[in-house]
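Kindly review these tokens for lecture notes.

. . .
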Amino acid sequence: MTSSAVSAPLEAPVLGDASPSKPAASDEILLRSARLSDIPIMGNLCMDAYAPNPVTAYLTPKAYMYREDNAQQHRQGCRRRFLDIRSLSIVACLAADPSMIVGFGQFRRLGDDYGAKQFIRDRGIRERLWIYILSWFFYFYHIIENIIWSDRITHKARMKEFESWVGDDNEIYWKSHPERSSRWHANSIVVSPQFQGKGIGKKIMLEGLKRAQNERVIMGLTASVEGEYLYRKVGFELLGTFSHRVPTDDREGGGIMIWYPEGTNAKS
């Protein structure tokens, strides 16, 4: 995905800037297309950002005991999304130290309309071939990795049930509405806990929204309780709350959200 310019299993939860009282995004934060070599850092960011989340604590109750297992799961998830031909991955780094990645976003272009096909064509034959080869390589790599280092953190029964809940929400809010099939979908917006509240999540999200606006298509996402505030600030609306919640999470907020491009009659 290295040639995709930044401008115009279970999906990871979406996180954002929860506090309205912290300073705005600094111009010293730069955005660029993610590289394959960024995946380990992205996985570590997920691990740190999701640590206090009741959902991940419920699904992976032993994550604190086996940190490397936790990192492995997040690396694999980020890598699979990165190697999806329909995916766009963006990282936020410090201008003074571009090797210091403080956040990232992964978006996916769904549908078979002109915009979706053009996004894939714009990758170029060489890049598409390279992604195809790498995706198969890492498919088998992950299988071997999971055999050698088996999963010790996931509660299998809870995860299976949770995946069925995700499927229910997907059916309710997306599959049952064919007019929403062509869209950008934000799979992950993750910011390092040390840099949250500075507008970095918003800056990443706006890059994805530029594409949706240019293509005149909606964008969807699954918002955590923490992330809902950020997404409302950039124009997302709540389609509905989750059909199920984990027993340990009694907080209000979060759900399935949608963003409509300006100048369209998408709502009707």
Observations:
- The first helix runs from residue 39 to 50.
